[in-house]
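ugh ok fine here u go
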Amino acid sequence: MVSFATIWDTFYKFFEKNLWPLVLSISVIIIALVLIKLICTIMNKLLTKGGVDGTAISFYLAVTKLILWVVTIFIVASILSISTSSLLVGFSSIALAVALALKDSLANLANGIIIIFNKPFRRGDHIEVDGAEGKIINIKLLTSEIISADNKRIIVPNSKMVNCTITNFTSLPTRRVTLSFTVSYESDLDKVEYILNEVAKNDKRVLSKPKPKIFLANHGESSLEYSVRLWVNTGDYWDVYYDMPRKVFDAFKENNISIPFNQLDVHICDDKDGDK
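structure:
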């Protein structure tokens, strides 16, 4: 049985022999912590001033940290007289095992890099992808985060972001608002079109170019349907979309334009016996 004295003597000789390399290694790790943080801070400021997208900045910083820490590990291994070739073999084996176990995650990682460099959307864009719709709040290496209109956080794997069709509602400066309004068949159509044009013209958020387009779109069973297409700045889309129906309703009411609604006529006939 190995005695405590033997164990202590072994540890003592080890630390006596390797004390300086251990102290130096710990010093290198502490210096690396400070330098890596400083380098990343400087990079962040420089890239931000250069107008680089925030998502790309996060990716660059993550890659920089990884490279610097790998370099630090090899420096420490060299100080401790650990064979760097053995270390490389070990890293390769671990990397292979991790790659096989996390192939889906690595696919998401690769797709995250594609998103960062191709930029199909940016942080803050309103998008729809694979049935999820909302504002992009974060694009990470493996996943992207969306906040829906009713304040739900949706996590989408980056493979979905690359392989599915993406609708970006806010990437362009202007959007078209399409609205429908119905009037009765007895209405003066010239007057209806004039009112719709005036309502659109008097709203400063509606752009004059392209011009608003107003046309009779459909002959319904009990009404005529007008389609109104207006161009607005993207940021004004929803305000115009929700405000315009009320403005049109008030204008129709003020000008005695009839807005039809479904009605049911019930006829009661006498039968032969005189009963109703």
